[in-house]
Amino acid sequence: MSEPMSALGGAKSEGFASVREIGPLGMISLRAKADVKALPKAIKAAVGTGVPGLRRIEIEGERACGWMSPDEYLLVMPYGAVAGALEAIAKAMGGAHHLAVDVSDARAVFRVGGAKADQVLAKLAPVDFATLGTGELRRTRAAQVAAALWKEGDGFTVVCFRSVARYVFDLLATGATPGSELS
Amino acid sequence: MLLIECPCCGVKAEETELSPGYEAHLKRFGPGSTDEEFEAYMFARKNPKGVHFERWRHAYGCGKWFLAARCTATLEVFGTYPAQVGEPPADIIEKIKARRPDWKGYK
Amino acid sequence: MSTRLSKGGRLIDRSAALEFSFNGKRLKGYRGDTLAAALLANDQMLVGRSFKYHRPRGIVAAGPEEPNALVNLGSGGRLEPNQRTTVTELFDGLEAASQNHWPSLEFDVGVVNNYVSRFLPAGFYYKTFIHPRPFWKHVFEPIIRQSAGLGSAPKDRDADRYEQAYAFCDLLVVGGGIAGLQAALVAGRAGARVLLLEQAAHWGGRAPVDGDVIDGKPAGDWVDAAVAALEGMENVTLRARCMAAGVYDHGYVLADEKVADHTPGDGRPKHRLWRIRAGKILTATGAIERPLSFAGNDIPGVMLAASVRDYVVNWAVSPGDRTVVVTNNDDGYRTAIALREAGLAVPAIVDARANPAGDLVAKARSLGLRIEAGRGIAKVKGGKRVTSVAICLQAGEGAVIDEIACDAVAMSGGWSPVVHLWSHCGGKLTWDTANACFRPDPARPPLNHDGGAMVHVAGAANGAMKAAEALLDATAAAEAAVTALGMKPKKAKAPVAEAVAEGPMEAVWIMPQGASAELKAKMWLDYQNDVKVSDVQLAAREGYESVEHTKRYTTLGMATDQGKLSNINGLAVLAQALNEDIPQVGTTTFRPPYTPVTLGALAGEARGEIFQPLRRTPMHEWHERNGAYFEPVGLWRRPYCFPRAGETHEQAVHREVTNTRERLGLLDASTLGKIIVKGPDAGKFLDMLYTGVMSTLPVGKCRYGLMCNEQGFLSDDGVVARIDEETWLCHTTSGGADRIHGWMEDWLQCEWWDWQVYTANVTEQYAQVAVVGPNARKLLEKMGGMDVSKEALPFMQWADGRLGGFPVRVYRISFSGELSYEIAVPASHGAAFWAALHAAGAELGAMPYGTEALHVMRAEKGFIMIGDETDGTVIPQDLGLDWAISKKKEDFLGKRGQQRTFLASADRWKLVGFETLDGSVIPDGSYIVAPGVNANGQGKTQGRVTSTYYSPTLKRGIAMGLLHRGPERMGEVVEFNTVKGGTVKARVVNQVFFDKDGEKQNV
């Protein structure tokens, strides 16, 4: 068996912000209502975080849990940790109605870094980055495709579907072309 | 371009993040219904100039459908609310009545 | 002549000389010049020809309202037509060429139109070019297109790049004159996030030119201090060279920033289109001076009075040595004073008012200027340049009293507030009698999402024409806007401008008042489109009472300047002709953009590789390396076929089909939609969604399913697999995954929200490969790792396991009629798995095949394809799919719709197969002809082809199609029409052409 390959094999670009494909990253889409009693235990067991509030993302080292919708969470972890996390969720949730699926391979993940990383994203997404706080997960549109993003380190993490990874990478790299800073 | 707050995730989403979904609070008629009932459900949609209740999906966001009360003439948005209700919430009805005293109700 | 003055010029840097060219002539200017200023400094007053009569035209204005001075700018990949010289910043090496003339600007053949102009009145084209009909397309239109039109369209790919960006603010202030600056100061101090836009490269607007004094200092000093103060506020952003093009619903504004127009090739984006969302918008967009309508008012050298002043003060350019000022208001006197103070001659101020009085009039008198009160211009004389003006009594009919030699005329007909942005979203206007202009009606603003005012307006844009009024107005407007945003304005001393006592203006729409028809036929309203006073009056006589109709009939205001100069004058003339008041006649609709926005900015980053998202499967690169010819399927790119050297696409498809049927084919099926549906109510839910029963499907098995919309029409199909007690996996069509997932969520969220079901679209989690053909099992056995025998994995079952070490889920399903396995692997292993199958399959004859071979094979088997056999008006019963529709279920989506009489009827077009008698392939899109003609004389039809291919397996053309009562007509011969004419005869047959009993797939 081969090593898992991310969509672009770790593509990189340097402009006034840096763009880097990371991954493959482990991701689980967990659907359950917020009032399910076992939910905190399941999330804790899978990624070690608490249950994020509305539009929040809880980050613990390499693992995170983001609020995607009133009944959907995105669990992030090392690629190899998914199978164990799925087992842990199943065990914690027991008979409670939920759905947990591996979506690691369905996604591409980018790090947009640098002091002006927000200016690259402001060219693609109808999001007010001045009011997007640390720890907020925003699902939105990057030009013509769906994306989710949050602040992390000196920049942002951007998640999109795998099939449009090249498109999103090209968008980000073009947006970061030196000389096109917004301020 | 409209700006509508999604009641499910709180994002003030611009129109390009949403997809429209016609009239809200439709009652479905399936097998056993009369031709008139089915026609009314399927085709006889309201299109008022003024207060209107409609469905939107936060397609590029949390993915949830929600309902909006909006004036189609001035584009004033009276309020948005989750889709899992049979009729508009009382506080939105009150708000519309205050803004449009001659409004005849949502039915 | 026009020339550069030796002193002055507040915007130019005389130490930075620049070279540019106009029609190939090398000329010099300075940094800070506009192209128009530099042209005038080089005595280039004649810059173009008018649209219809090809009359010589000169520079009229100094800003975005300029109607005449449009040029082709640049060349090759940087050629841009219709660029306004008055807003084009000069740069070294700029190339400009005049447009709309042939063969040259100085000598233009088209000017014959001018001499026959009395035969070319308004509506001439409408009236003349109607008959004979064919002449329009072949004679009139080509000639008109040749002689009309403005600049030349670029032929090369645009060398520059463009981008878009989003911006958010509490208050967007449009206009960087003193009103806009003051409004931004008030809002900025109150703590609001302010974005301040100015279309020009410099701040301050008119006040520094007009000599206003603010807080005891020259206006320019106050402007500098205000800009510095705003730049020091963290919550305020200033953008110059940024034109607010349009105001849209809910505080959305588009603005075009000319980032690098003046520094071409420096690597920056040429333009940036800002998509701004503002809590409130405050327009401080100033006012535009109106021309006066007198005979010959289009001769080069006749200019707007304030623009003449701009050229003198801003760029030290004298439009003429001797300038006659003609005015109906006191502001015109400022120009006379500015010219005199620059050492130029002003032979006369012709004032239409009988008794001008006020500070400026007094100053002009004290300077010894000749004032001709109660007079007007009877006629301007000159050809390519003004030589003199004949003056007359304004109240009379144009009898000439005196003729004054001059080479320029500065005219002022009063000022019109720039109300465009206020009006774009429905803000209403009110008539201001004192200033004879429309201004925003504060009681009827455009509305925001909360029902409150979306746009506030300040300064000259609000009719507050004088500096002192404008500053007070801006302070009040900004305080109101900030308060409406829920913030508290800080108490601060408002700046005070020195008041100048001005006498009232007097509306003058025609000069002289009783001008003859001959004079009116030389009074231009719209310079660019050549519309005259006489044209509007003709339109009124011919019954065009609505201003919107008159606009279209005469083309008044329809040129690229959108009537910035002509609108009010035109509708005043119309109102007079109709004997109505101006407010009753009303204005035409203001529509975005305020000034043209280049297409590059509207496209933004969406060009080349990122014009549109292309969806790629994990195997995409392999396909590219192996010569795949791609076709779009939704946004996906799928290999259509893999042609080898020397093969046509058709030959490649035939080879792929034959190889798959005889040996082994591999298909990248990753694009297939995959949706997980799970929960205690998932079975019940799927029974509602599909026409068949899914709840009874045993774990480990697969079942083909159809989905219909509520009207009953077939919308998607695919194989459903039962994964465990609570979980199903639904395959959808390649283009349908997102739509079907949305459809499921719609019903779960909005109708059956108490059902316990969750869905997840896992389409992209898996790469999927169809391993197809007699050798399919051998290949999987060679890969090894799981039992794929007939007994362990029968047809229509699935199993999890490992193949060649890869984690896989294998579905034993077939869309080709062959022994076939569809194998899903995690996408991040997709490329490696695909390569491993090819490596292992080489000795078994494995070849990749594309979508066309897939189509041919499914058609040979009579399998339907959504989008071919369906078009949104076809129900499953039309396709003979009754076996996939449950009779027992009380309800499913589409069941009630299908019960409608016209759908339940047997009298419909239904699916059958066709074999041409001569073995040929029926052309795509063919209809089956029926005897007789319909009410329109068109031949009747009784069906149509839906899929038609050459079958390499059967070596003949095969087709499926819908035929009226088709299944009842087996053996009958019908005729298909063809594009070339004539018909193709075909026999009606069963649509399964190959392996009718399904023996091949079931081994």
Automatic annotation (TrEMBL), chain A:
Biological classification of the source: Bacteria, Pseudomonadati, Pseudomonadota, Alphaproteobacteria, Rhodobacterales
Cross-referenced Pfam families, in alphabetical order? SoxG
Organism domain of life = Bacteria
Could you tell me which InterPro entries the record lists for this protein?
SoxG, TrmE/GcvT-like
**Any signal peptide, and if so, which residues?**
none
Q: Which SUPFAM superfamilies match?
A: Folate-binding domain (SSF103025)
Q: Which organism is it from?
A: Paragemmobacter kunshanensis
**UniProt-recorded name of the protein:** Sarcosine oxidase subunit gamma
Automatic annotation (TrEMBL), chain B:
Which InterPro entries did the record assign?
SoxD (IPR006279), SoxD_sf (IPR038561)
- Supply one GO BP term: tetrahydrofolate metabolic process
Q: Give the GO molecular function terms.
A: sarcosine oxidase activity
Q: What is this protein called?
A: Sarcosine oxidase subunit delta
Species per Swiss-Prot/TrEMBL record:
Paragemmobacter kunshanensis
Automatic annotation (TrEMBL), chain C:
Keywords in alphabetical order, please. Answer: Oxidoreductase
Q: Which family does it belong to?
A: Belongs to the GcvT family.
Q: Which residues form the GCVT N-terminal domain?
A: 619-889
Q: What is this protein called?
A: Sarcosine oxidase subunit alpha family protein
Where does the Aminomethyltransferase C-terminal domain start and stop, copy by copy? 910-995
Which Pfam family is one of those matched by this entry? Fer2_4
Q: Does the keyword rRNA-binding apply?
A: no
Report whether Oxidoreductase shows up as a keyword of the record.
yes
